[in-house]
Amino acid sequence: QVQLVESGGGLVQAGDSLRLSCAASGRTFSMGWFRQAPGKEREFVAAISWSGATTYSTDSVKGRFTISRVNIKNTVYLQMNSLKPEDTAVYYCASGPSLVRVPHEYDYWGQGTQVTVSS
Fold it and tell me: How far is CA 106 from CA 1, 37, 59, 109, in A?
């Protein structure tokens, strides 16, 4: 059983930065960040392999968001720079066996952390 706890969300202005953290208890493999805005489906943001050597991100965040992990701390991070109002959403971290972009391939999910970007 894996438990995931996100933190680091908040209310910021456009152009600001935030760093989200996801602390895990239990063994994790590939990790992903997803987000869900009101009235929209949950969408993939970024994912990272267990070693950290391979990462993927969706086109809308490339060059602005960076996913990383520190396995000794069992923690995954999402550094978000140059935030835009359209980044407003609840952000979730997830753990799964494979480095994929689809939510249903992930076995464990955190409770989410709200990110709100004002214009």
Answer: 13, 19, 21, 8
**Structural tokens at position 111:** 């409770």
CA angle 90, 108, 5 (to 5 degrees): 55
Per-residue pLDDT of the chain (119 residues; tens, 9 = 90+): 899 999 999 999 999 999 999 999 988 899 999 999 999 999 999 999 999 999 999 999 999 999 999 999 999 999 999 999 999 999 999 999 989 999 999 999 999 999 999 99
Reported in sequence order, the residue ranges of 1-119 that DSSP labels E, i.e. its strands, are: 3-7, 10-13, 18-25, 30-36, 43-48, 55-57, 65-70, 75-80, 89-96, 108-109, 113-118
What gap in Å lies between CA 88 and CA 39, rounded to an integer?
12
3-state secondary structure of 86: helix
Q: CB under 8 Å to 68, separation ≥6 — which residues?
A: 48, 52, 76, 77, 79
